[in-house]
């Protein structure tokens, strides 16, 4: 079998981490050849070196293009001419991307094509491509999104849709009216041994942070609701907790979050650590992992926290947390947006070693369903059924 994966880039992100996990999981499967198309090569493509060497990788746009276009985009509001230049460059970019994807697909004898996210939806010629095409769906459909209708239209074009939890499968079946037999649920594979190994690379005393502490790891964007987390933490501090809060990650919200921390006078208690390539030691030694995101798919970082036996307090946002936390047995699920309840539950757990021990006991019994071996077996079976139907 020869398969092609397509994705936007290899920056530090949850979906990119999942892609790398799959490539590392599958590259040594007998009689399975894998190739990869990445749209943008960027300075932030931190996962580039983790792509297995036997996987051929095509980059459609180089680093120079990415930098030049970003400059045009940032300056687009300066004048009408700047806006026109940006629009023209975007048109040329789309045309080149579509042509290059067509060229690669038609020059190779792929058995299956896998669009790993929504980026390549407009660049696949569904009328000409003869091979089965799979679309990975990492996030719940969002009815409030201006792209909601368009996303449903794209999903209907694919031969198979892989979702990452049962709740998401039901949502796509009901809202997008996609037949159930075209939807397959596949949990994200987790490199358990590698995560534990990385967590042990740095000893507790080498972390250069204060103990005890709470932790959060994700890109700093609005959907993750870090502002809510900081306000929850402010209330916990008022109630007398001794734990500090460390937030690991980078993104567009960094400056806004720092302003909120300063406004609440939490500069010495709530620390933005920025991007850390190996966050696992920080997760391992935390008392709790806190997660206030309003929308997820199957958040990998929650699985990683469970592997490291760190209980989670998470908003019960659409798709993901409920299945990862086994309906609240492996951590606390909070009604979405209820900051008061989030504060109360976190405070309760921090003051109950028995509750933490119970969560950790449940984690050890449950985490095996996300094992690599199980996921690899299920994925190869999906490929075979598509090819040899």
From TrEMBL:
Domain Glycosyl transferase family span(s) in chain numbering: 201-366
User: Does the UniProt entry include the keyword Endoplasmic reticulum?
Assistant: no
Q: Where are the transmembrane segments?
A: none
Keyword Manganese among record annotations: no
Q: Which domain of life is it from?
A: Bacteria
Instruction: Locate the coiled-coil region(s) and give their ranges.
Output: 74-101
Any one Gene Ontology biological process term?
A: carbohydrate derivative metabolic process
Q: Which Pfam families match?
A: Glycos_transf_1
Instruction: List UniProt keywords, sorted A-Z.
Output: Coiled coil, Transferase
The protein's GO terms of the molecular function aspect are:
glycosyltransferase activity
| Protein's recorded name | Putative galactose-1,3-transferase
Q: Which organism is it from?
A: Pasteurella multocida
> What is the gene name?
pm1138
